[in-house]
């Protein structure tokens, strides 16, 4: 027998720590078995939990023998002599070879047994939490989660990522415009989960390119549903990102759906990235069109010398948009190349004419 408070505490642990009751029942059983063996000299027992009646029953388990064996039984069951077994209440007709079970009152474990049980249970509970947490986060490798900043150090943040697990976010994995404070929530990408002898080690990042993928899936239902595909992403973390999108539904315009009404969808993504600029462009099966679109906001008048083997091309832009196409420090063309998968040599219309590539 046991108090109702015991089961109430188990239910609270199950709910608060997100652990299945069945797993908690198993470690309770193991804890009682351990305490029993310590108190009764390695005797075998069986523990039965009855949550409906809020009971725990312990039974000493023994095999009836004529004389004790010289070596321990393979199944670990303790032995009791036939003459002693027949002295037990209700066991007068037992025979050699029978397995008998004798109820053990909880009080027989005493204070020492209760303390052993409690200590063993707490150790097993911590181990169970670690195992469940590791499995949970291992399943989230390559996914995005929301984490709470619990401390800010010189070179890293300490994040609460749930399941009683904290992790470090090195400041090199932050965006340049991130200014996190204790209590803030950040969207982070889980790169890897490692097993340790303690809590699992969870590696997270804010500047991983895949974080963009997960944000797009979160805020743009058409991407999550596969109606719109992300064909390419290039990123200077914290500064600018260029994304190629394609709609599998002729009734859905890819860029417009991603931007959302009044820019509502893309704004949520930009906010999650603390102001990182997002350039969206339409990917097309027509290579020339994709290359031209990738250089937006510049206008491309013509795409020439497209070579599928070397994946090289030449893009012609108006004379007054050459610097716009190239971008500051070459950023626009670099992101266009990375997101489209094509090398792009940009020339102004005058340059193209001088080189005989076009006729005016």
Give an overview of the whole structure:
It is a single chain. The protein starts with a helix and ends in a 6-residue tail after the last helix. The strands form four sheets. Strands 7-6-5-8-9 form a five-stranded antiparallel β-sheet. Helix 2 (21-39) runs antiparallel to helix 4 and helix 5 (210-219) runs antiparallel to helix 8 (264-272). Strand 1 and strand 2 form a beta hairpin. It has twelve helices and 15 strands. The chain is of the alpha+beta class and 360 residues long. Helix content is 34%, strand content 29%. It has helices at 4-16, 21-39, 82-85, 110-138, 210-219, 221-224, 254-259, 264-272, 287-294, 322-326, 331-340, 349-354, and strands at 45-50, 55-65, 78-81, 99-104, 144-152, 156-162, 165-170, 185-194, 201-205, 228-236, 240-247, 277-282, 302-307, 312-317, 343-348. The chain is elongated, with a radius of gyration of 34 Å.
* Mean pLDDT over the full residue set: 95
| Count of strand segments | 15
- Class derived from helix and strand content: alpha+beta
- In which order are the strands of the major sheet placed? 7-6-5-8-9
Number of H/I helices? 12
**From the alpha-carbon coordinates, what is the Rg to the nearest angstrom?**
34 Å
Q: State the end-to-end CA separation.
A: 97 Å
Which percent range fits the helix content?
Answer: 25-40%
The proportion of residues in beta strands is: 25-35%
| Global shape | elongated
Contiguous low-pLDDT stretches (5 residues minimum) are none
